[in-house]
Specification:
The protein has helices at about 40-45, 60-65, 85-95, 100-110, 115-125, 125-140, 155-170, 175-185, 190-200, 210-215, 220-235, 235-240, 245-255; strands at about 10, 25-30, 50-55, 75-80, 145-150. It is an alpha/beta fold. It has one domain (about 10-255): Protein-Tyrosine Phosphatase, Chain A (Alpha-Beta Complex). It holds the Pfam family Y_phosphatase3.
Length: about 260
């Protein structure tokens, strides 16, 4: 864990369906990096990470800019994905009439489930997710070029992206789902409490559905997204091809991430 984050981890060591495991030190995932402490910055500088993929919207970045070490270069790749942005969801609720209880209740009744949110993300994000795969495939052990993907919480946009990469290289699906679900435990406590307090200040009732959207990572949500990928594209490989990833790039991704 990097000090100042809540949901940082290496995706290495995940079992592959054909034997072996995903390679450590290649793909990392995290929540936002805006609260890194000096110790966290020093620890990040000591990792093989050289590429930081930020899925947040420009508004999210402006509210909480990432902190990165000064001692060596990092390539920052901004791939904004709206679905999963709580700032956007908050704005939508306010535009729906957050000061009017009846209008707010109506807006709350039409909130998507996490699984629905992820399908919408996948429908619009194939090009962005293919670019993540391309960056991982291009990384090497010769320089700090490992890839860190993050959004605000590191659970939704980051969770879908990570699941896609792991599925594409043949990671065991149960392990992929378990990795996704771990975010809820990692975010529990101060981070989740602060986010829920923010929602309450907006005047939104903390229904079970809204709590899940803000802080949850139920296994059923990512399973729903993966089932959609299977049905529509025949799996993660087909989905990434739909975003422009070539067969050669897919092979390079497997060679890089699957030990």
């Amino acid at each position: 864990m990097l000090e100042g984050t809540h949901n940082f981890r290496d995706t290495g060591g995940m079992p592959l369906t054909g034997g072996g495991a995903t390679r450590p030190g290649v793909l990392f995932r995290s929540d936002a990096l805006g609260a890194l402490t000096p110790a966290g910055l020093a620890a990040l500088a000591d990792t093989p990470i050289g590429v930081v993929v930020d899925f947040r919207t420009p508004a999210e970045r402006a509210m909480a800019p990432d902190l990165l070490p000064d001692g060596r270069p990092f390539q920052v790749v901004e791939l904004s994905i709206l679905e999963g942005a709580m700032s956007g969801m908050a704005q939508d609720l306010m535009r729906s009439g957050a000061t009017d209880p009846a209008l707010l209740a109506q807006a709350m009744a039409h909130l998507p489930t996490l699984g629905e949110l992820y399908v919408g993300m996948l429908q619009h994000g194939a090009t962005a997710f293919a670019e993540v795969a391309r960056l991982i495939a291009a990384s090497t052990d010769d320089a700090p070029t490992a890839v860190l993907v993050h959004c605000t919480a590191g659970k939704d946009r980051t969770g879908v992206a990570t699941a896609l990469m792991l599925e594409a290289v043949g990671a065991d699906r149960a392990a992929v789902v378990a990795d996704y679900a771990a975010s809820e435990t990692n975010l529990a406590g101060p981070w989740a409490d602060a986010m829920l307090a923010t929602v309450e200040r907006m005047g939104a009732p903390l229904t079970p559905g809204l709590r899940e959207l803000v802080t949850g990572t139920p296994a059923a949500a990512i399973a729903h997204a993966l089932a959609w990928i299977d049905a529509e594209h025949g799996g993660a490989e087909g989905y990434l091809r739909s975003g422009g990833l070539t067969d050669a790039e897919l092979a390079a991704l497997r060679a890089r991430l699957a030990a």
